[in-house]
Each structure stands twice: as structure tokens, then as C-alpha cells.
Amino acid sequence: MSKFKGKKTDNGPKLAKKTLREIALNGIQSPSVLEFFCGAGESFNAVWRKAKNYTGVDLKAFDDERNTICGDVVDIAKTIDVDKYNIFDLDAYGSPYTVLDILSKRIKNYDKIAFVITDGICIDLRMGNVCSGVQSLTGLKNRRLRRANVLHYEIIKKIIITVAQRLNGVASGFKIATGVTGAKVKYYVFFIERKK
Ligand SMILES: C[S@@+](CC[C@H](N)C(=O)[O-])C[C@H]1O[C@@H](n2cnc3c(N)ncnc32)[C@H](O)[C@@H]1O
Q1: Is residue 1's pLDDT more than 60?
Q2: DSSP state of 139
Q3: Could you read off the pLDDT of 139-193 as tens digits, one per residue?
Q4: Measured from the CB, is residue 39 less than 6 Å from ligand 1?
């Protein structure tokens, strides 16, 4: 895994989000995208429309050109055929880690996949709250951990290591950007390649 290159985004998250998604798209052959929390299609319109295959998941129903599933991301992550996809976009307002926890246990058939993550847990961590997805992916046992935000980068590193281990793969291509607002949203991408 490359070293963290945390960059502050001064022109808003849009450019960082687009750039990270382009990195994922360009790093995967025959890209097939599963976007959780897909919303009205900002990422689809900016990047994912270039993918060979795309499915978006959202609580809201969208009647547009995209292939979308209306439902709760956790339910869909548990049931959808994840092996049909090789790019997983988790663009949550809060924690993407319950979904990542499920995916990392369910994906079986892959050579190389990319995860694009929006991590909005910094405020929770600052208040000492560690959500169940983070607990499961890091091994942290306590729901409460004072000033856990100090460990945010370490938590992300550990999460990537866990995902790679569960998938019997090797992580690479890690890039991260941090939003400039108090929420300190982290935007990042990484790849997992199956061990030869
Ligand atoms: C941050 S926006 C996503 C933006 C989108 N990725 C884009 O590029 O335009 C959050 C979206 O997540 C959806 N959402 C929030 N909680 C959800 C859940 N539990 N299951 C499915 N969708 C959810 C909301 O309906 C909202 O559309």
C-alpha cells in the first residue's frame, strides 16, 4: 500500500471525488460499477457513465437512464450478486463501513477490484463513537473511545488491511483527500488484487 498522501481539497469535494473515481475507472479492465448511496447521479454523470456496466443503490427511487435499485444499502449489500462488479463506490454521508464490512465478506470471484469510499465518520470519532462497521473492520472492541478522531488515518489503514486479508488479496493504489469543512470528510480509493 502506498503511503498516505492526505491532501486538503480547496475547491470542494467535487473535483476530488471525480478524480478518485477516474483513478478507479482507469485502473480496472471492463469496469462494472456498483454504487451504494447513488443519489441523483452526480458520480454517474461525472464518471461512471463511461463504465461498461453500472448499478446504483439508493433509498430513493430514480426514474432516469441509470440502472438503479431502490432499497436500503445494507439489505442490497447482503443479497446482490457482488461478483458481477469490480468497482464498489460507497458514497455515504456518514459511515460506509457497514456496507464495506458486508462486501469484504461476500466478494469471492475477482482478479482486481477497486473501492471508492466517502468516509463521514470524523465527527462521530471526535465524540468518541466507534460504529459497528469500524469495530468489525478494525477489531476495536469498544463502542466508546475518547478522541478516536486522532486515530482516523490509522483506522482507515487498518480497514484496508482487513479488506485485503478477507479477500486474500493485496492492497495498492491508495489515494486520499480530506474535505476542508469541520466534518473532515475523507475521500479515498484503493485497489485489491488477488494474491497469485
Ligand atoms: C451523499 S448522497 C450520494 C450522492 C451520490 N453518490 C452522487 O454522486 O450523486 C447520499 C444518498 O444516500 C442515500 N441513502 C442514505 N441512507 C441510505 C440507505 N440506508 N440506503 C440507501 N440509500 C441511502 C440518500 O437517499 C442520498 O440519496
Answers
A1: no
A2: -
A3: 988 888 888 888 899 999 999 999 999 999 999 999 999 888 878 899 999 999 9
A4: yes
Closest CA to 118 of 173, 183, 66: 183
58 Cβ closer than 6 Å to some ligand 1 atom: yes
Helix and strand numbers (H, E) in the chain are 7, 8
Counting ligand 1 atoms within 8 A of each CB, the residue from 37, 54, 68 with the most, and so the one to mutate, is: 37
* Residue 9: per-residue pLDDT: 43
* Ligand 1 site, residue 72, Cβ cutoff 6 A: yes
The reply to whether ligand 1 has any atom less than 6 angstroms from the CB of 73 is: yes
**Residue 111 Cα to ligand 1 middle (Å):** 28
C-alpha cell at 12: 470542494
For ligand 1, say whether the CB of 41 is within 6 Å of any of its atoms: yes
Domain 7-194, what fold? Rossmann fold (3.40.50)
Is 193's C-beta closer than 6 angstroms to any atom of ligand 1?
A: no
* Residue 69 near residue 81, CB atoms below 8 Å: no
The 10 Å CB-count burial string (b at 16+, else e) for 78-116 is: eebebeebbbbbbbbebbbbbbbbbbbeebeeeebbbbb
Q: Report how far residue 188's alpha carbon sits from residue 2's, in angstroms, rounded to the nearest whole number.
A: 12
Q: Coil, strand, or helix at residue 119?
A: strand
Q: What is the pTM of this model?
A: 0.93
